[in-house]
Amino acid sequence: MRRELRLDGVGRRYGLRGPWVLRGVELGVPPGALVRVEGANGTGKSTLLRLLAGIDAPTEGRVTGRPRTAYVPERFPPALPFTAAQYLTHLGTVHGLSRRAAARAAGHWLERLGAAGYADTRLSRLSKGSSQKVAVAQALLAEPELLVLDEAWTGLDADARGELERAVAERTAVGGAVVFVDHDPRRLAGVPAAVYAVRDGSLHRRTGPAPVSAGPRVVVRVQGPAGAVLPADVHRTAASAEETGPGSHTLTVPASHSDVLLRTLLTATPPWHVVSVHAPEERR
To answer: Does the keyword Nucleotide-binding apply (predicted)?
Structure first.
């Protein structure tokens, strides 16, 4: 059973007498959680994410319950002596995949992110956007239990940004946790999430409604056997679920997560019948 990742009384500073970047951080990240971290530049967001990813160790406090973790840094080092496919295959073996499975996963994620044409290009020759696609792919290829994203959407084209949002939905739908920072307040808006802000070296949980538009949504009407309970993964993906009759439910889901929700319903045992899929303003 996956455990909750916990930071208890965690502080971080650089150097014996350096100023504290973070101090007294209390944070739990349970399986299936989506956590957004906000804050002005230089407040310590990236330091917090590096602590969560295990890249940095706390100066004080404890980190417990660490799951298998993958990390997309704010800046990806492209000057490495590999092609994109070689680098991803190597990282896959580091994560415990066989070489064949790692090569297959590398090809899969390069294809999904629109970078398959650069598989045999050396990292040093890739554009910033293509390098970022490799950075995202290396974090996703081994299906991590915790995915940590530091401005991971920056530099991606629109199709790749959408694909990363779908990957986040896939991770949380199967019980993986995702912690992310992004400069766009609309990123993953409307998806059930915990939101924290870093201020003055401390972490504060935001309460109340989100201050931005929820973004495009889709309404899905489904019918299952009388008395059937919606799969648990549905509740990790849908923004809301209303029971409208015996076995009948109306689900509202962010548009970026609709594919994952439908796949979950159609592959359930027994499968659910999808009655309709439409935008909220459309009447049925």
So the answer is: yes
